[in-house]
Write a structure and sequence with these properties.
Strand 5, helix 3 and strand 6 form a beta-alpha-beta unit. The longest helix has 21 residues. It is built from twelve helices and 15 strands. The protein folds into two domains: 276 residues, Zn peptidases (Aminopeptidase, 3-Layer(aba) Sandwich), CATH 3.40.630; 133 residues, Glucose Oxidase, domain 1, CATH 3.50.30. It is an alpha/beta fold.
Length: 441
């Protein structure tokens, strides 16, 4: 039976509605992982769980009072720093987007109001050197309540932290229009370490099991977000493709995976690739023996990674960034022209679970769907009613045909294990600029 959007949508509903909000490291994420694991087991695949540890928010409380507005709704940026129990007050200074050129001369006790995020190290480090007493982030989406996000432990340990909270765009806008001069904030946050997991369903190749392709998509959500489009939809497509190929078989090994904690900074996929790197370091083929080059490590056996993210939008644009040899780019484009759907293709570094694989030298292609409805991603409005069964069918059929032609049935694997230098640089810049954390404080 070919790819069936009805069955994929069943998985989408199970994750987004039955399990619901499932942030990384939470009991709900574990319930979701059991659902996926049972599905892979029911297909007869080699099903397993790959655990890893992750830092998650603990206590998260905040208050924010702005001159002329009174108390406004706020959420703390978890794992930053605490104010005194009584809070702190100080002059409110608008610093635009928080880039270094917008930062004022140091004066004790300033509270910075900035639009957007704390950002990568080149932005965050100058912010910390400016020594604000606290930071207020204005949401960059107009119609949502302040979201709960966190600061990554890598960034906190490298550069430090100050009490940080988020307020709605409308409240920040009112504060600026009223030329508010002072604010008072109270932040009480903590963090803790929890166990998360990737869930694997492996179909061993019947003829060339040493040639490995991973097909994955994350199954966690942001805090307070149902994660229907992002990314129950993508995980559901992966689960339905697993059913298709569990029945059809494959000459090569296909590893289906739902990754945990993508929204915390690609933690699940990064943990898996780190495990591959460690296994590669331990792998020492006998170089004196004839045929030693055939003795590849699991990392070297990986030929390709396909990532499925942001699925379920009824009206939108399909997007496919590719990081691989020219023949991979050409194959993706030609298949799209032959059978649809259309995609916007480029060779950017897509910020999802494909990136750690590309960083390890494994060619990747990512498949997402963009559109105005995507504005609800990372918010409580990313719910099942914003997803459509029929939108899953075209991407499912495309990936089924791609995997059938080039992986399951191809006499020889058609894509070199090679990433162009330009893409390598983009991936390196991506990881150098992040120090982890997705919507990272």
């Amino acid at each position: 039976m070919p790819f069936a959007s009805r069955q994929a949508f069943h998985h989408l509903a199970a994750l987004a509605k039955q399990v619901g909000i499932r942030p990384g490291g939470s009991p709900a994420e574990r319930r979701a992982s059991k659902y996926v694991l049972n599905h892979f087991r029911s297909l007869g695949l080699e099903a397993s769980v790959e655990p890893f540890d992750v830092e998650i928010p603990g206590k998260t409380e905040s208050e924010c009072t702005i001159e002329g507005l009174g108390r406004v709704a706020s959420r703390p940026v978890a794992a930053t720093a605490n104010t005194p129990a009584r809070g702190l007050s100080g002059p409110l200074v608008f610093v635009e987007t928080g880039e270094e050129v917008h930062l004022p001369e140091f004066r004790p006790g300033q509270i910075f109001l900035l639009y957007g995020e704390l950002g990568p190290p080149e932005k965050y480090a100058p912010l910390m050197r400016a020594k604000p007493a606290a930071i207020i982030l204005a949401e960059n989406l107009r119609f949502i309540e302040p979201r709960l996000t966190k600061l990554s432990h890598e960034k906190r340990e490298a550069f430090g932290a100050v009490p940080t909270l988020r307020i709605g765009f409308a409240d920040a806008d009112r504060a600026l229009r009223k030329r508010a001069k002072r604010a008072r904030v109270t932040v009480s946050v903590s963090h803790e370490w929890r166990r998360s997991q990737n869930v694997w369903g492996v179909l061993r190749g019947s003829e060339k099991p040493w040639e490995i392709v991973t097909v994955g998509g994350h199954y966690d959500s942001v805090w307070a977000g149902y994660g229907a489009q992002d990314n129950a939809g993508g995980a559901a497509v992966v689960m339905e493709l697993a059913r298709v190929f569990a029945r059809a078989g494959s000459k090569r090994t296909i590893r289906f995976c739902t990754f945990g904690c993508e929204e915390l900074g690609l933690r699940g996929s990064t943990a898996h690739v780190e495990n591959l790197r460690k296994a590669h370091a331990r792998h020492k083929p006998d170089r004196k023996k004839w045929g030693w080059k055939l003795d590849e490590s699991p990392l070297e056996q990986h030929r390709l990674m396909l990532n499925v993210d942001l699925q379920g939008l009824l009206m939108g644009e399909n997007y496919c960034p590719v990081g691989g040899p020219p023949e991979l780019v050409a194959a993706c484009k030609l298949l799209s022209s032959e059978m649809g759907p259309s995609f916007k293709f480029d060779e950017e570094c897509y910020s999802s679970d494909n990136a750690p694989f590309a960083h390890a030298g494994i060619p990747t292609a990512a498949f997402g769907r963009l559109g105005v409805e995507l504005m609800w991603a990372h918010t409580p409005a990313d719910t099942l009613d914003r997803c459509w069964e029929e939108s899953l069918q075209p991407i499912g059929e495309y990936l089924e045909e791609f995997l059938t032609r080039y992986v399951a049935r191809a006499k020889a694997f058609p894509f070199r294990r090679e990433i162009p230098e330009a893409h390598k640089k983009k991936v390196e810049e991506y990881f150098r600029g992040r120090v982890f954390g997705y919507v990272d404080g």
